[in-house]
Amino acid sequence: MVTAALFGLALAYLPRIADGGFVHFSYGWVGDAGVNFSFLLDGYSMFFTLLVAGMGTLIFFYSQEYMAQHPHRLKFYAWMLVFTGSMLGLVTSSNLMVLYVFWEATTISSFFLIGLSDKEEESRANAVQALVITSLGGLAMLAGFLLIYAEVGTFELPEIFARADVLRDSALAVPIAVLVGLGVVTKSAMVPFHTWLPSAMVAPTPVSAYLHSATMVKAGVFLAARMTPVFTGMPEWEGMLVGMGLVTLVVGGVLALRQTDLKALLAYSTVSQLGMMMALYGLGTELAAAAATLHLMSHAAFKGAMFLIVGAVEHGTGTRNLERLGGLAAAMPALATLAAVAALSSGGVPPLNGFVSKEAMLGASLEAEGWREWGVTTTLVMGSVVTLAYSLRFLIGTFFGHARDADVHPHNPSLGLLMPIGVLAATMVVLGVYPALTEGTLMSPAVSAVTQQLVHVDLGLWHGVTRPLTLSIAIIAAGVSTYIVMDAVNEMLTPVTARRTFERVYGGAVEWVESGLPRLFWHLQNGDLRVYVAAIILFAMGLTALAATRVTSIPLSDLFEGVDPGVLDYVLATLLAAAGVTMIFRRGRLESVINLGFVGMLVVSVFALYSAPDLALTQVLVELVMVLLFVLGFRKMLRVFHVSKKITTVGMQAAVSVAFGAFVALILLAVLVTPQHPSIAPYFLEQAPEGGHSKNVVNSILIDFRGYDTLGEITVIALAALAAYAIVRAIKERS
Amino acid sequence: MDRGPLLRTVASLMLPFLAVLALYLLLNGHNRAGGGFIAGVLMSGALAMQFMAHGYESVPRFLRLPYRGFMAVGIGVSIVVGTIALVKGYPFLTSFHSSVLVPVLDIEMEFALAQAFDAGIFLLVVGGMMTAMLALREG
């Protein structure tokens, strides 16, 4: 219902967008960092919004029937809605940071939908695989976005487009393109990052159809298209997208040929088709962008339909294994008809929409310059041949021929399952016969938004006898022949395709991380607090020393200029030093704690003396509670410390302690004599009564002016308390 | 677990005074020394004293509160307070203030929204400290 309403709402905006207009609005978020909730509805985001909302409507409708008996039904709907919202946010974001947030939100909802059956090992492992691969890519992309901000000072897409040439000429252009590209290719499952997508097929079929075919996996393609005005013309960007896309097209297609699980077949075919779109957006020409956008729509329709068909088949027969299926057309005539439309559209047979978009792609690649003309075209042709072959295998293997397993008793799918598929099939036919329907309202604005130039897209089923048409005829002939000799082809390729190279690489990497890193961490984190403290101190000192070499140095003789101690200062200093020294020789834990409390109280006196009442008050109470906590914590421990007798250990500890003491003293002295920047104190003193209506400046800073910091700090307190609670609980349960 | 009548008596006698002092610090923090954090630390110190003097089981029931929940409420209050400004169209955590005539005492008192934020901090500190301390007691 919601998605249908959204679809309608988006449609209402269509005329405005079609006329070349756009809707842009923005809410402040973290304005100082350039992060605002700004959204842009232009031709391309409109195209995607309609795609997401439209497919969503059909798939939610389908799910009502399909998921009716599913044990995790509620979780399924919740996460599907989260996904729909995030995906719509992603495609309409105008701010890169907001886009990133939605991007990861789709990853997370995908994770939970893949792992829907959380009691099953396979389901969990595959969900993690998808999460790991796509979020690693996402992190690279985030780094790329930050670099973009560093170069052009904005996260807003329109402003970035306006300064695209600055970005392209900057020294960081190549790293930015590669990092953003990594996000793109992992999300859209390009070889060699494609392994998560076939694994994701453990999710229920509506999820596969919606997320892992029609929409989410296209987020990468979406971003590639969005970045066209920025990166087009950069050989690194083009090479990455076109190269990986073409490899993916062929590898995915060949792997799809040998699958016997229908969903696996569709998963690899999706990988392959994504590669095709990626390669075309990578080319970046107007024709290529138009063809890729058109194919994006075709693919969503036919691949979504094919997934839903598999769901209906599984629903009606209890299996989706090609070795057990066959001859279903007799039992399910309506479904078989729809399957024929979808599969033939996928295979690029006229007069369906898959044919129109494939023609457009061939046309675009033939117009490309240099090596691309023959390179891309040849690969496209190869990919299309394979595509037709596996589409035929999908269709004929499932619905025609003879039944392979007598135990399969098909029953006809209900109207609830057939309707959404029917709508998609009707779309394929209509857009195939009359492609110009979307030309002005949808395609031209979308492609104009991608290229940031006014483009008129010209679509048609029949262009006369052209080179693309000749190629199409050749593809159909070759595809049918490949289907006929498919078993032989699979046999021949088995030595290559059966090795599951990519899966093994991923498995190896995971294993290395899981077994190798802990070993490293056990060295670093050996459990001895004293080592940690020493490490932290030494690191801090090293860092500060490094920083000190970069600023103008202060002569040592000047250091004591700001110091003018009185009698009371000497007394306090002596007492503090004495308390410190006795601390070293304490052997009992409780005695040490009380000694430490004494040191704390002396510090309080110092604060009181230098008129910092807030600080003194806080310190008194904190010392008190700290002593209490220590006493409680030490109750169950040995009464005395373990003290090392080894001279080297003691020497090291002494050296670190003395060095740190001297270091802190030096810094404090240096602060006193360093010329102050204009002090911020007067500002706060003035602002507290006015802005905060408060007479306590310290408190005003804490809870009002710096409220964000405080909110963060109290969250840390809560986390620390919870951690303490959890640790104590764990110890208690173990003993 | 008996820890002697002296400690018990003193602890019981001091609790109301310390509680009032904590409240005073909390409310007064806006204009003089004090504030949610200090008040929270003081309050948890006072409570901890009760638990140490009497032992958990003998402490009056009204002090054996779900302190872990306090943390959630504290953070919740702080966030809600911050969001009020967002709803009104100001940046997150903007404070507002107004004068209120206290009916019985017939005096005018000034309140700032930041004080509600402070109250959230108070709750969180009490919750956090007590959670940690009671956990250690059990261990």
Looking at the structure, what is the overall shape of chain A?
elongated
Strand order of the largest sheet of chain B: 1-2
- Give the largest interface pair and sizes: A-B, 43 and 49 residues
Multimerization status: heterodimer
Sheet/helix structural class of chain B: mainly alpha
Determine the N-to-C terminus distance of chain B: 16 Å
Report the uncertain regions of chain B: none
With helices defined by DSSP (H or I, 4 residues minimum), what is the helix count of chain A?
A: 31
Low-confidence stretches of chain A: none
**What is the tally of helical segments of chain B?**
4
Description of the molecule:
The complex is a heterodimer of chains A (735) and B (139). By secondary structure, chain A is mostly helical. Chain A has 2 domains: 2-484, no CATH class; 677-735, no CATH class. In chain A, 74% of the residues lie in helices and 2% in strands. In chain A, β1 (23-30) and β2 (35-41) form a beta hairpin. In chain A, α24 runs parallel beside α28. Chain A is elongated. Chain A starts with a helix and ends with a helix. The longest helix of chain B has 26 residues, at 113-138. Chain B has helices at residues 5-28, 36-54, 67-87, 113-138; strands at 97-102, 107-112. In chain B, 65% of the residues lie in helices and 9% in strands. Chain B is built from 4 helices and 2 strands, in the order αααββα. In chain B, strands 1-2 form a two-stranded antiparallel ribbon. Chains A and B meet through α27, α30 and α31 of A and α2, α3 and α4 of B.
